[in-house]
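User: I'm curious whether this sequence folds into something compact or stays loose and floppy. Could you predict its structure so I can see for myself?
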Amino acid sequence: METWLIIVIIVVIIAAASVWYFMFYKKKQADVSSIKASSAAQTSQPAVPVVTSPSHPVNQPASVPTASLIIKNALYGASGGSVASGNVKDVTAILNGYVTGNKIDIETGSIGGVYNEIFGGDPAINAAKTLAVTYEMRGITHFVVFNENDPIKINA
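Assistant: Here's the prediction. I'll summarize afterward.
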């Protein structure tokens, strides 16, 4: 792979991660706080104190350990493509939905088109595609690329 292509892919991933952070992560923090407040009001119990620090990626009660696997960014599409051009999809929210027990384990079997089904369509028809995932595990950021329809396995 040419160096410029790698640089373009990295820049796209960083840009998408920034957009996700400000659009979804901050909103999720606000949603978690409001759910806890309404839950405490309904049960007539005092609200659980919320810890806000870099060691807690999402505001959570101090007594609940944080999840050790967080999908920060996931892009599915043609190599060298971009979200803006339409041949790459941001599938971060979808992939986060598959996190169970601090892992992702999606078996694709031998049939084709599984990624297209999971991620809501084919972003680049008749082109080889990849799934590029940036995730955080126990506070450390990792990056992995899966070829189209490979099993997706990430363990915390």
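Summary: Residues 32-65 have pLDDT under 50 and may be disordered. The longest strand covers residues 69-78.
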